[in-house]
Amino acid sequence: MWGIIIGAMLAGTVAGAFFLWTRFCKFGIVKRLSGGKKWLRRVLGLIPMVILGIFMIFDPINTAVVIVHMSVYWAVAELIAFLIRKAQEKKAAGNEQEDAKDENTGGFQIYRVGIIVLCIEIAYFSAGWYFANNVWEKDYQLETTKDLGMERLRIAQITDSHIGTTFDGEGFAAHLRTIQTTKPDILVITGDFVDDGTSMEDLLISCAALREFECPYGKYFVYGNHDKGYYRHNYSVEEFEAALDYGGVKVLKDEVALINDSIYLVGRQDKSTKNRVGIDKIVSLLDPSKYIIILDHQPNDYDAEAATGADLVLSGHSHGGQLIVIRLVGELIGSNDRTYGIETRDKTTFIVSSGISDWEFRFKTGTRSEFCIIDVTHK
After folding, report:
1. DSSP assignment letter at 269
2. FRET label pair with 343: which of 16, 105, 110, 361, CA 20 to 30 Å apart?
């Protein structure tokens, strides 16, 4: 999916940059300053694009996100304005005459569509930054007829922290202190705990915070597609797992942990891992009378997981769709079985969290950063 998205982003950025340049040339202030000279108006219209180009040098991905979004929304706004003008033919004819006068005399004209779009974009990305850089608690209430060995099991789920993006090791420790106040029975980290750029210092600070985190039935981790690194890492896999071990975190790699003699916690290798064990082979060895929880970073194996009769599957990976446009594309091409939230297939409940942080993108729209508190009650 990401290959498709990146390719589309590159093409969209180039096309969007050209489109935005033509739009900036339409602002009244640009026309006035150009004195009716088309070449000067085009040069002045390049000034905002130069500013965006400077941002592109320091943060290419997020600048591209801004350019693509702005050009798409601007095009939609232009289309709406065009349809309105067509619906009001007499007024449209008057506007065309005024446009022609402005073109010839350099008179001032308010470019309303452009102003509206810029205001919307500022609000949109400000909200997106806020939703990505702040964290909310997301609660789920589930019931089971199976004996849990306790009246209620409280699970705290953290996923996609990508430490070093929206917060560093100290920031992760602060979020853990917030989660600690919910008094969970177990803590599960469903992948992408770190990223390629996560420093050893931030990793150690985060794992020291995990060491201080208290939950009676343990802390567990499964790998995500970023945890072993794509292009660089500041530590080896062995050092990474040693840090988690110091934090009191059990790493599950196609393995099962038995909790309170009543609950199975099945930790899967990430989908990107070659030759990972099929979930049917793992669960078939378990006692079906016990409550079975599967931790699987990517929500991409729902049919097989539901066929096992497992009770609960927890995932992340999708970041809740991250951005409205990406979510729409992802759901259209079926990149995940689910992008966000909860659903039930047969006897299995699936939950996908949007994650506690971000990846390369610094914005979340249509979703927000979160940790999950899942209460499973015996009835």
Report:
1. P
2. 361
Query: Domain 136-378 class?
Result: alpha beta
**Separation of alpha carbons 23 and 32, rounded Å:** 15
The CA distance from 70 to 219, in Å, is 43
**How many Å apart are CA 87 and CA 82, to the nearest integer?**
9
Q: How many residues are given for the chain?
A: 379
The one-letter code for the residue type at 354 is S
Contact assessment for residue 148 and residue 180, using Cβ atoms and an 8 Å cutoff? no
In degrees and rounded to multiples of 5, residue 345 shows phi and psi of -125, 120
Least confident piece of the model among 109-113, 303-307, 334-338: 109-113
- pTM for the model stands at 0.88
User: Quick check: 307 and 283 in contact, CB under 8 A?
Assistant: no
Q: Mind listing the pLDDT tens digit for each residue in 179-228?
A: 999 999 999 999 999 998 899 999 999 999 999 999 999 999 999 999 98
DSSP 112-167: HHHHHHHHHHHHHHHHHHHHHHSEEEEEEEEEESS--SSSEEEEEEE----TTSS-
Angle between the 89-105 and 60-87 helix axes, to the nearest 10 degrees?
Answer: 120
pLDDT grade, residue 93 (50/70/90)? low
Please report which confidence band the pLDDT of residue 35 belongs to, taking 50, 70 and 90 as the band edges.
confident
Domain boundaries, the chain: 2-129, 136-378
- The region, left, alpha or beta by phi > 0 then psi within -120 to 50, assigned to residue 46 is alpha
**Bridge partners, 154 (sequence order):** 375
Banded pLDDT at 100 (limits 50, 70, 90): very low
User: Partners of 135 in the beta sheet?
Assistant: 369
Distance from first CA to last CA of the chain, Å, rounded? 41
**Cα Rg of the chain (Å, integer):** 26
Average pLDDT score over the chain? 91
Look-up of token digits 């790699």: 253
Evaluate whether 90 touches 20 at the Cβ level (below 8 Å). no
